[in-house]
Write a structure and sequence with these properties.
The complex is a heterotrimer of chains A (447), B (116) and C (175). Chain A is of the alpha+beta class and 447 residues long. Chain A folds into two domains: 104 residues, Rieske Iron-sulfur Protein (3-layer Sandwich); 263 residues, Naphthalene 1,2-dioxygenase Alpha Subunit, Chain A, domain 1. In chain A, 27% of the residues lie in helices and 24% in strands. In chain A, helix 5 packs across helix 13. Chain A is globular. Chain B is mostly beta strands. Helices cover 5% and strands 39% of the residues of chain B. In chain B, the strands form two sheets. A six-stranded antiparallel sheet of chain B has the order 1-10-9-4-3-2, with no helix packed on it. In chain B, strands 5-6-7-8 form a four-stranded antiparallel sheet, with no helix packed on it. Chain B is globular and about 40 Å long. Chain C has a six-stranded mixed sheet. In chain C, strand 4 and strand 5 form a beta hairpin. Chain C is built from three helices and six strands. The chains are: A alpha+beta (447), B mainly beta (116), C alpha+beta (175). Chains A and C meet through strand 7, strand 14, helix 7, strand 20 and helix 11 of A and strand 2 and helix 3 of C.
Chain lengths: 447, 116, 175
């Protein structure tokens, strides 16, 4: 861990909310819509989940050169992800330590540093305060520049994906990802050249609770056949594949992260309707097998989806990565990117960039029906009575596979809400835990 | 009393590089090698407290590391906001092995530019 | 920034281009999808780049062809989008979204080759769904219209909105 950080002032831990067990009981497979609507719960989420967990902030390819930066948020905290002169990456809170004004208003670029528009406090790309307008007048106040740099978060990366956390007591990123890294490698490490993001980021807002979107990707392929029927017919001329017909598929989770997948190689990718992409995946599979083994090589573009707790998701095949940025209990900002293998032919990369736009983006024929569902899953909880009624999360209860070599908590089939239960269980455990040390280890016990 | 101050050895700075030379009498001096030609200016930015020797030298312009204002190191001219006050320059004297500044005199380029 | 030389065309040609754009808006408001597709050239490029909030001195600018877009479509893609609207299982379109497309600031200039016109216009699109959903998008369009065998067709469209983040969940219409 870095030792040159200006220490973040710890937030005094709020006491756990009462009745969380009544609102979310994953042993019984039920929860209530109050968790999607309640403002007090949301404030605790910002404190105990978003200020505590490792959050995805950037792909290394977005900031290749010294001084390159992108602006994003961790929860509702605005941060800058900045490439340093020594090629390392820092994550700095995008707020001047004088009056709190934003020091960078662009979403991305290359900078010598960041200068606050208010009083001209000037910071290096490393966040150190280098000077102020009218610097002479500070001398009488025994002003110590070294104590007034931009605040830093802890940073670590995994195969191109950069994560940060505000929590000094958080486990290492490797521990945080646990066995899920083995599954992430399907996307991040199927080719020797690694991955990159296509240029740009599409942003949109959805009036839904962030958990509904995150849960949709953690393990809800069940909705696809029904919700996305129109999009599948539009893109393919026929219905979505019947996932229940697949000979084998799995739901795997760990500490709230979840990956649900089949091994049909091109099931997700096929909905892009681009034969060049299907061909690329077929040619790539044997190369991936050399790196990852035969089992994972069949997952590259398969019917699958993934959420890393709490709010970073992706779809293999469509190759879209996204963060569901929380903006109050009933609103998110959706940041959408496209990930491709760096060594893929340019026309294949372009087809992926356009294919993700065509399917999973605000103009995507698939996502249109998702947004509508998520908004009304949230909005119905406005009803005071409706809010307290049970929602069923029991599909696939007791379908854990004991005799498997696959890492993580492994459940039978994708049409299974085991990952959703694990997601909400971890959510509740974090809200109840005063610190990271108090978060119970439920791996091996989930149903 | 001599006004001649030793800045560096002739082969000490590669073209495009610069260094700060502490001087208690006239204030710290920054010496630059522009494609083999030496120049010297005051090291302290005229806008806010900052050492120009920590800045970037490109195309004859020194960019202050703090607010990114720029000066032409040949004439001392302040060319980019927020720097508005020109920078003091010093005449360079090069001998066989060493580079000196005459801190009593402005650079010839500065005199020619007649910025005052 | 300066604008390129622009050559006005005849009143009749100008009127034809204006009529094309206004009719197109009416077709979209009335969900006349097949008629709308028929206004497009086989070679249409329909492009709405994602808007990036970058500093003035950043050479990458506000948008670029290699970056992510909201539309970057040929005729095949636009037909696929219409195909979704036509499915009985397009759940989020039933009840329908109600649209108004307002078109203004129309300027018609000669194109690069004979029979082509460079047409600038602005739009305001208002969509409403359900009882209370209301979304408003405004922007500028730069079109190339081409006189083909069946009359004027849309060959190119570039749509620029001022928003770097959509303040709505989707764009379930054409602009």
């Amino acid at each position: 861990m870095d030792n040159n950080l200006i220490k973040l002032k710890p937030i005094e831990a709020s006491p756990a909310l009462p009745n969380l067990d009544k609102l979310c009981d994953m042993e019984a497979g039920r929860m209530s819509g109050k968790i999607f609507w309640d403002g007090d719960i949301y404030e605790q989420e910002l404190e105990k989940i978003f200020a505590r967990c490792w959050l995805f902030v950037a792909h290394e390819s977005q900031i290749p050169k010294a001084g390159d930066y992108i602006a994003t948020t961790m929860g509702e905290d605005e941060v800058l992800v900045v490439r340093q002169k020594d090629a390392s990456i820092k994550v700095l809170i995008n707020a001047c330590p004088h009056r709190g004004n934003k020091v960078c208003f662009a979403e991305a670029g290359n900078a010598r540093g960041f200068i606050c528009n208010y009083h001209g406090w000037a910071f290096g790309t490393d966040g150190a305060l280098r000077g102020m307008h009218e610097s002479g007048v500070y001398e009488d106040s025994a002003f110590d520049k070294s104590q007034h740099g931009l605040r830093e978060a802890r940073v670590d990366s995994y195969k191109g994906l950069v994560f940060a956390t505000f929590a000094a007591d958080a486990p290492s990123l490797a521990e945080y990802l646990g066995p899920m890294a083995w599954y992430l490698d399907v996307i991040l490490d199927n080719d020797e050249g690694g991955t990159e993001f296509a240029g740009g980021c599409i942003r949109s807002t959805i009036e839904c609770n962030w958990k509904i979107a995150a849960e949709n990707f953690v393990g809800d392929i069940l909705h696809a056949g029904w919700t996305h029927d129109s999009a599948a017919r539009a893109m393919l001329g026929g219905a979505v594949a019947q996932v229940s017909d697949f000979p084998e598929s799995w739901s795997v989770n760990w500490n709230g992260h979840g990956y649900e997948f089949a091994r049909d190689l091109v099931g997700n990718a096929a909905v892009l309707g681009e034969s060049a992409i299907n061909k690329y995946l077929h040619l790539q599979a044997p190369k991936a097998a050399e790196r990852l083994g035969e089992f994972r090589s069949r997952m590259l573009g398969a019917v699958s989806s993934f959420t890393l707790f709490p709010n970073f998701s992706f779809l293999p095949g469509q190759n879209t990565m996204r963060v569901w940025q929380p903006r109050g209990p009933n609103k998110i900002e959706l940041y959408t990117w496209v990930i491709v293998n760096k060594n893929a032919p340019q026309d294949v990369k372009d087809k992926w960039r356009r294919g993700a736009m065509m399917t999973f983006s605000p103009t995507g024929v698939f996502e249109m029906d998702d947004g509508e569902n998520w908004e009304y899953c949230t909005k119905t909880s406005r009803g005071k009575v409706t809010r307290y009624q049970d929602l069923y999360v029991g599909l696939g209860m007791n379908t854990r596979l004991a005799d498997t070599d696959l890492p993580g908590n492994v459940f039978k089939g994708q049409l299974n809400e085991a990952n959703s239960r694990a997601f909400y269980q971890y959510w509740k455990d974090l809200l109840k835990a005063p610190s990271w040390a108090d978060v119970p280890d439920r791996n091996g016990q989930l149903r | 009393m001599t006004t001649r101050v030793l800045l560096c050895q002739r082969d000490e700075l590669t073209p495009g590089s610069l260094k700060k030379v502490p001087n208690a009498e006239v204030g710290d001096i920054c010496v630059y090698n522009l494609e083999g030609q030496y120049y010297a200016t005051a090291d302290l930015c005229t806008h806010a407290t900052a050492s120009l020797a920590e800045g970037d030298l490109e195309d004859g312009l020194i960019t202050c590391p703090v607010h990114w204002g720029q000066f032409d190191v040949r004439t001392g001219e302040a060319v980019t906001f927020p720097c508005e006050k020109h920078l003091r320059t010093y005449q360079i004297i090069v001998t066989d092995k060493e580079v000196f500044a005459d801190v009593a005199k402005e650079a010839e380029e500065a005199l020619a530019a007649d910025l005052a | 920034m300066t604008l390129p030389n622009e050559q006005l065309v005849s009143l009749e040609e100008t009127r034809a281009a204006e009529a094309f754009l206004l009719r197109e808006a009416r077709l979209l408001d009335n969900e006349c999808w097949e008629d709308w597709l028929a206004t497009l050239s086989e070679a249409v490029h329909y492009w709405m780049p994602g808007i990036e909030n970058r500093r003035r001195e950043d050479k990458l600018g506000t948008y670029s062809a290699e970056h992510m877009a909201l539309f970057d479509d040929g005729l095949r893609d636009l037909k696929r989008r219409v195909n979704r609207f036509n499915q009985p299982s397009a759940w989020a379109e039933n009840p329908p979204t109600r649209n108004v497309h307002l078109i203004s600031n129309i300027e018609v200039f000669a194109g690069d080759v004979e029979g082509e016109y460079r047409v600038h216009s602005c739009f305001v699109n208002i969509r409403s769904r359900g009882l209370d959903e209301h979304y408003q998008l405004a922007g500028r369009r730069e079109d190339v219209l081409r006189l083909e065998a069946e009359g004027l067709k849309l060959l190119k469209r570039k749509i620029l909105i001022p928003n770097a983040m959509l303040l709505c969940k989707n764009i379930n219409t054409f602009l």
